[in-house]
Amino acid sequence: MREPTFLILTALAAGPRHGYGIIQEVVALSEQRVTLLPGTLYTALDRLTAQGLVEPDREEVVDGRLRRYYRLTPGGLDALQAETGRLRQLATVAETRLRALRPRTA
């Protein structure tokens, strides 16, 4: 799973969000390392919807503009949990190897 996809699913784990809300949350979660452009986000949301990982939650009109909210599906939650475990396992391996490289002090 690519990092932007992981961050989108993580943003939605807190509850339904509209597109701009997802973009803002991804920026916050990534500590400003990842900024999604609207076209990139909506392409990803279409793909994630087709995969059954997210689904539309509701729509509302704000200032004359349609705002669509998305939420995680049970499959999306499962995918996020699996990827979180995979990343944790990889981080543990990396940390173990880094500790082995550090000079030992007596």
From TrEMBL:
Q: Which Pfam families match?
A: PadR
From what organism does this protein derive?
Micromonospora viridifaciens
Q: Which residues form the Transcription regulator PadR N-terminal domain?
A: 8-81
Task: State the superkingdom.
Answer: Bacteria
Query: What SUPFAM superfamilies does its record include?
Result: Winged helix' DNA-binding domain
- What is this protein's record name? Transcriptional regulator PadR-like family protein
